[in-house]
Amino acid sequence: MENKGPIIVAIDDNKDNLIVLKAFMKDAFPGAMVFTATDGRTGIELALEKNPDVILLDILMPGMNGFEVCTALKQDPRLSLIPVVFLTALKDDRKSRIRALEAGGEGFITKPFEEAELTAQIRAMVKIKAANVQDRREKQDLTVLVAQRTARLEQELAEHKKTGQELAEVNRALEQNKTALLNLLEDLNSEMEARKLIEATLVRVNQKLNLLSDLTRRDLTSQIFVLKSYLEIAKKHADGQDRILDSLLKIDRTVRSINEITEISRDYQDMGARPPTWQNVNMALLFGLSHITIGGIQHSLETENLEIFADPLLEKAFQGLFENSLEHGAQVSRIRVSSTMTPDEVVILYEDDGTGIPLERKERIFLHGEGARTAVRGLFFVREILDITGITIRETGEPGKGARFGMAVPKGAWRFMGTGKE
Question: Residue 407 contacts by C-beta under 8 Å, 6 or more apart in sequence?
Answer without folding.
Answer: 347, 348, 349, 350, 386, 391, 392, 393
